């Protein structure tokens, strides 16, 4: 009976968004800086997607470009980004500091972040489900740069976490 | 021996087969040419298309937001086939309670985290078509069956070739609140002044396309793959509140009944104006918002040879218009917007419409419709023949950010551009989104660049697609994927094809060949139904450029471009002149690497035996191997006497030889564009066609013969191939900074406004 109820609720909960020209793609470029011992990352996402998501989730109801120098808004962005862009290094969750926001005229916004990490990274677990709760079409990607080598990882609704094992040889 | 040879052959076989794959012709992928569509990509002698003419009367109830209508469709069968039934599209059924589009969404429990999520998911409304009757023109009921978003009308007697049939449909539906439900059309409610703005489309049962490719294109509407529609003539009467202004596909037939004398006068002025004329001003619209008339008026529009009809209606509309001359045609560029769109809309919308029509006409075909309309509708961009609905709304205080301005410009150019793709060059959107979105985004890019130098276009330049193209190929769909099954719809259907066309134009074909072929495709298929093969074939047929490898890689594949420059070797030509060559050898000897013992022994050993005793050194020890002797000179003279003057010139030209090695890491073959920087800091660019990879798809080398010594080489210096890793593109190696590093480099300690304050302090 419980299962039946749960299934029924799932069907009723479904909704659909039919905006014609959506983007639904967030991209993160992430690098381990061995000199500073920090992970440096830039999350690039479609400005109007993120604004819409923030608005619909009741987080913020203003254009990002107006808030790029607002300390309070910075804290909100930082918390929100840390929810949708999580990094676990050697089994320990790390927290990103938001260091800058660049709203581009091409329609995307860059969020620049960094976080201190252990000096010897062996395992990275990345969860990147930013905007996925707002848009069923959302798909994300991380390009990780380690010792000048680039590797890319896809994040989908049914695959929000990826793992990298690093060799320190 | 035979065995060895056989083994070698077998070992080479996979690589030979592989080597052919990227440059293999597209014979198997493309449909066989026939009488309907030629091998050159043009409509064939047997090409046909159906015609669907509509006479529609609808009304909107502004109190209940219900649209009711009745239409007479006259369908003409130009095909050689007899049709036992007709298929129509009921697109509004995507809002039916049992709609498949809701059921097919993948979900998980995490989607229901907050009360807001639950509320959103629980929200449902019945917005499907309510078909009341389908009858013959004489009133006899016709049998029909509705299959979700499709409806089949069963014919008592098959519709024969060249025959036509007329029938009537009566229906109604609840217009969707676009701000709550979403959608391509619907209404926006303005709470402050209690008014509605309707942007209405897919509002009537529409004929499906029947053609030589699909038969009936009756694939269900699931939300992404848009519309596939036959051309026809429309006469549409729309009854709305009497103070509403309507903008619609086609030409207004009864201005005397619906416009005031003043509005008619301004409308006439606009027909010859080269800048926007206000037909309804903001003050007039604001007055109507308050007064709200009670009666109704009926606006009638006619449109010829269009594939669809849409309109917008509101008493809030401000309306301006101007004339655009395209070839021999006069086109009315018009905009309809509520005051909430100002100041952006009054300033830019109609001028953008005019610019788009002119620029697209230059690159494609002359725009032949009488009007082109941009309607302001929050958070959307959606296109229909002659009319489109566009977002880009300023703040309530009338200010707007720069990205809002560019967002509005971009969406207007894009949606007006859709008049060409797919409204006139009428591809099958249900099947191939890229054929309209991709081609349109490409011309949008060209149009944006002609609007403002350095316009920050989101899509078009090759390097902007690199993020999307790298990564796990499992999650990157080929462009040639059905609209409903595409990963990353925006990047796949808009960005990648637009980029591919830009690369064809700038890098593979060149502007002259590309522009001619692209225009030829548009001319051939205007007011017709092209397929991907027609496009691919025309581009080759009109340019004499074999592009099969390009279509295969960019449209049928999901590889990315990552070509690395692995190594550079340097050689100089031997002049054979002993004076020159022996001097070089001497210098090389003197500058050779020396071992540590040899260096230390210079000082540690004060004198060797042979230095102290001259009798030790014999002929070998005493001779100077770098000395040019008489024999050297004689041999050189004899050698020179054998050479022609041209050979002598070449010998003395001091040519420098550089062998560059490349690896194709990403899989997608592309030309090699190599910039050489010489020691004197001048540069030279070499462009090697992609066919260099035709036999060796993984590794190639190329020798560049230069007049001067080079100090560095860079691959893809103008970022024109969408290379996804620039770190392996240079020799000596050069690591590109990350976005984070670039940000840190330019980071200022003050924001632009703080800086401006300091500027003003200096002024004062």
Average pLDDT rating of chain B: 93
The shape of chain B is: elongated
User: Cα-atom Rg of chain A, whole angstroms?
Assistant: 18 Å
Q: Gyration radius of chain B, to the nearest Å?
A: 35 Å
Care to count the β-strands of chain B?
A: 30
Q: What share of the residues of chain B lie within helices?
A: 25-40%
Given as residue ranges, the uncertain stretches of chain B (5+ residues, pLDDT < 50) are: 1-19
Unreliable stretches of chain A (pLDDT < 50, length at least 5) are 1-20
Task: Please state the oligomeric state of the protein chains shown.
Answer: heterodimer
* C-alpha termini separation of chain B: 93 Å
Question: Beta-sheet strand percentage of chain A?
Answer: 35-45%
β-strand percent of chain B reads 25-35%
Count of helix runs of chain A: 4
- Find the structural class of chain B using helix and strand composition: alpha+beta
In sequence order, what are the helices and strands of chain A, one letter per element?
Answer: HEEHHHEEEEEEEE
Q: Find the count of extended strands of chain A (DSSP E, 2+ residues).
A: 10
Q: What helical percentage do the residues of chain A reach?
A: 10-25%
């Amino acid at each position: 009976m419980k299962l039946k109820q749960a299934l029924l609720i799932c069907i009723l909960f479904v909704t659909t968004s039919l905006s014609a020209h959506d983007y639904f793609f967030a991209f993160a470029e992430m690098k381990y800086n061995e000199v500073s011992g920090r992970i440096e990352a830039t999350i690039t996402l479609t400005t109007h997607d993120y604004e819409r998501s923030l608005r619909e989730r009741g987080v913020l109801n203003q254009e990002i470009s107006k808030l790029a120098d607002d300390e309070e808004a910075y804290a909100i962005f930082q918390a929100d980004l840390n929810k949708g862009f999580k990094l676990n290094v050697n089994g320990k969750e790390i927290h990103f500091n938001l260091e800058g926001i660049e709203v581009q005229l091409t329609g995307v916004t860059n969020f620049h972040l960094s976080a201190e990490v252990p000096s010897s990274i062996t395992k990275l677990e990345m969860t990147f489900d930013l905007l996925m709760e707002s848009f069923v079409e959302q798909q994300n990607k991380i390009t990780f740069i380690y010792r000048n080598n680039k590797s890319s990882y896809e994040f989908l609704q049914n695959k929000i976490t990826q793992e990298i094992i690093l060799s320190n040889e | 021996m035979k065995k060895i040879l056989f083994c070698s052959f077998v070992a080479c076989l996979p690589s030979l087969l592989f080597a052919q794959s990227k440059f293999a012709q597209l014979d198997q992928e493309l449909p066989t040419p026939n009488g309907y569509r030629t091998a050159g990509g043009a409509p064939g002698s047997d090409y046909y298309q159906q015609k669907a003419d509509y006479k529609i009367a609808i009304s909107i109830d502004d109190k209940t937001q219900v649209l009711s209508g009745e239409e007479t469709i006259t369908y003409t069968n130009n095909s050689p086939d007899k049709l036992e039934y007709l298929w129509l599209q009921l697109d509004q059924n995507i809002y039916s309670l049992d709609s498949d589009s809701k059921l097919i969404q993948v979900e998980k429990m995490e989607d229901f985290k907050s009360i807001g999520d639950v509320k959103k998911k629980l929200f449902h409304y019945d917005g499907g078509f309510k078909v009341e009757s389908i009858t013959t023109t004489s009133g006899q009921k016709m049998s029909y069956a509705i299959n979700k978003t499709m409806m089949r009308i069963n014919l008592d007697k098959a519709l024969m070739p060249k025959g036509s049939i007329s029938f009537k449909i009566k229906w109604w539906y609840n217009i969707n609140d676009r701000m709550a439900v979403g959608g391509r059309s619907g209404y926006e409610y303005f709470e402050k002044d209690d008014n509605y703005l309707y942007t209405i489309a897919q509002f009537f049962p529409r004929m499906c396309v029947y053609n030589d490719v699909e038969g009936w294109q009756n694939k269900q509407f699931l939300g992404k793959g848009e519309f596939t529609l036959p051309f026809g003539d429309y006469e549409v009467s729309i009854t709305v509140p009497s103070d509403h202004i309507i903008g619609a596909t086609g030409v207004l037939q009864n201005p005397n009944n619906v416009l005031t004398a003043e509005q008619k006068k301004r409308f006439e002025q606009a027909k010859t104006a080269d800048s926007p004329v206000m037909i309804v001003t903001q003050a007039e619209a604001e007055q109507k918002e308050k007064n709200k008339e009670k009666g109704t008026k009926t606006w009638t529009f006619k449109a010829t040879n269009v594939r669809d009809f849409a309109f917008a209606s509101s008493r809030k509309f401000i309306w301006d218009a101007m004339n655009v001359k395209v070839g021999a045609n006069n086109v009315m560029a018009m905009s309809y917007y509520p005051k909430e769109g100002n100041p952006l809309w009054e300033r830019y919308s109609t001028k953008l419409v005019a610019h788009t029509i002119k620029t697209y006409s230059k690159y494609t075909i002359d725009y032949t419709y009488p009007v082109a309309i941009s309607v302001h509708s929050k958070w959307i961009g959606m296109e229909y023949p002659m009319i489109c609905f566009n977002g880009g709304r300023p703040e309530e205080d009338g200010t707007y950010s720069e990205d809002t301005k560019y967002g509005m410009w971009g969406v207007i150019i894009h949606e007006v551009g859709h008049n060409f793709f797919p409204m006139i060059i009428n591809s099958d959107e249900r099947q191939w989104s890229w054929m309209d979105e991709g081609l349109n985004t490409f011309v949008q890019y060209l149009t944006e660049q002609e609007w403002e130098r350095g316009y920050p276009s989101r899509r078009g330049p090759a390097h902007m697609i690199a993020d999307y193209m790298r990564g796990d190929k499992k999650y990157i769909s080929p462009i040639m994927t059905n609209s409903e099954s595409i990963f990353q719809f925006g990047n796949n259907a808009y960005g990648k094809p637009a980029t591919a066309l830009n690369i064809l134009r700038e890098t593979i074909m060149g502007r002259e060949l590309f522009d001619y072929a692209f225009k030829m495709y548009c001319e051939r298929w205007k007011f017709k139904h092209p397929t991907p093969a027609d496009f691919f074939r025309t581009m080759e047929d009109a340019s004499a450029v074999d592009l099969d490898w390009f279509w295969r890689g960019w449209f049928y594949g999901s590889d990315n471009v990552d070509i690395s420059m692995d190594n550079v070797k340097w050689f100089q030509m031997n002049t054979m002149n002993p004076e020159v060559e022996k001097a070089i050898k001497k210098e090389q000897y003197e500058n050779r690497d020396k071992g540590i013992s040899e260096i230390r022994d210079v000082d540690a050993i004060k004198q060797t035996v042979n230095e102290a005793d001259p009798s030790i050194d014999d002929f070998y020890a005493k001779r100077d191997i770098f000395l040019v002797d008489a024999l050297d000179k004689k041999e050189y003279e004899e050698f020179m006497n054998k050479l022609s003057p041209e050979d002598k010139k070449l010998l003395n030209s001091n040519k420098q030889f550089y062998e560059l090695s490349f690896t194709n890491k990403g899989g997608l073959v592309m030309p090699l564009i190599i910039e050489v920087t010489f020691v004197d800091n001048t540069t030279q660019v070499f462009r090697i066609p992609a066919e260099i990879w035709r036999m060796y798809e993984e590794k190639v080398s190329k020798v560049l013969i230069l007049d001067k010594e080079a100090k560095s080489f860079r691959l893809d210096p103008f970022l024109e191939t969408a290379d996804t890793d620039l770190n392996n593109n240079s020799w000596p190696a050069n690591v590109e900074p990350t976005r984070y590093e670039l940000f840190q480099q330019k980071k200022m300690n003050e924001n632009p406004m703080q800086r401006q304050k300091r500027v003003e302090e200096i002024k004062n």
